[in-house]
């Protein structure tokens, strides 16, 4: 029972991050039909900018806000500099553009930052909270709570504001959106910005648990993409469900197999180890397919 | 004709192509204030392309003046802001949004406070929309979707309403209802450029008409004259 709860919390924590990445995919895909493989780089930027700003003496909350702002600027620039000029290009061309952007951003990060792994201090210390016999990292609450807050705010924005409805209208029917006077280019830029903000927030929240480096985005983009596909591309609730499900599958898969093999439970503390550790054949096949 | 009053719409030598195929080959026409102008012609004549070019969602060359100002270089949303609003062919409603949200988005660019009054006026015009205002627009019947598309366009406070095939696929009773609603727009200071496959019905409420064929205007005149013209009758109206 204690193990079960341990895996559950760990799965929900990782799953919340996948869900945020998947939500980022969904937001951009709905507004512009683009599958943005640079989504993981927003997460990387969220983590890396926070780490380096914090190391330079900026207080953690400010560093986090700065990182999210940087991610948003990069996201909007990605739209205006790379996607908007290719208007009318095929879906495959647009995907290739985003893959190129992702490689470019990774390269820039490698030069601007470095190639090391970095850690952020946990927001509320590292003393585990005992719950139902399991030791839960306080940062897990930040990740899960943060993800829930993002989802709630996004929902309120889309359902309760006119601009949010314009985003939904653009995704429902772009021609009609133009004909009622919605500037669809601005809406798409907004969705790239919003998506980058979501990714950046995920990066800030998860870095104290998983560490970050210039290339964490690749794997996160694949996981987020898998989650988005699992939930049905373009469906925000599906993205959430897909992300959480993928996280739980990983945690239970890795946890149970390690429990069986090694007799102990371990929280993923390292992205590379997380790949090797998760013995789930489902996910390995998914990675090969991509 | 009407001197001293400026034209609502004046197009001269408008051309547009899909790749190498020229669909509009030099169209010139005018719409005067409070006028209903019918644009008739067979399928593939370029009527829908013309309306799309006017709204700025189809690239075109040539001059388009709206209320005395050139608009041919403006993006679609700035044309809507000036009062050039289209209800497109095939309804093109926002299916995953509610009827009420569709109407609200019709007034997306409006900053004035009269939006809810205008919405109530649309509900008076099409009471069935009021009954189903919380329903998703995609679940409405074809006729209801058409009413919604027209209502949404009216929410944009048009000075000129472009209507593309408003009666397509509707039962005769609904066609009469939609056509009557369009005729009624004249009293609301809205000029209408109406594209209709049901040419007799369109010319029946129009002041003037243009007949299009393969990207060119081949006849024009008062609606009554076009309805009486033997060549027009046999070629476009299906009346022997």
Structural overview:
- The complex is a heterodimer of chains A (290) and B (240).
- With 290 residues, chain A is mainly α.
- Helix content of chain A is 76%, strand content 2%.
- Chain A has a two-stranded antiparallel ribbon with strand order 1-2.
- In chain A, strand 1 and strand 2 (134-136) form a beta hairpin.
- In chain A, helix 1 (2-32) crosses helix 9 and helix 2 packs across helix 8 (184-210).
- Chain B folds into two domains: 1-83 and 158-240, Rossmann fold (3-Layer(aba) Sandwich), CATH 3.40.50.300; 94-157, no CATH class.
- Chain B is built from ten helices and ten strands.
- In chain B, the strands form two sheets. Chain B has a six-stranded mixed sheet with strand order 6-7-8-3-9-10, with helices on both faces.
- In chain B, a hairpin with a 2-residue loop joins strand 9 and strand 10.
- Chain B is globular and about 45 Å long.
- The mean pLDDT of chain B is 91.
- Classes of the chains: A mainly alpha (290), B alpha/beta (240).
- The A-B interface holds A 162, 165-166, 168-169, 172-173, 175-183 and B 55-57, 75-77, 80-81, 85-86, 88, 92-97, 101, 104-106, 108-109, 152-153, 156.
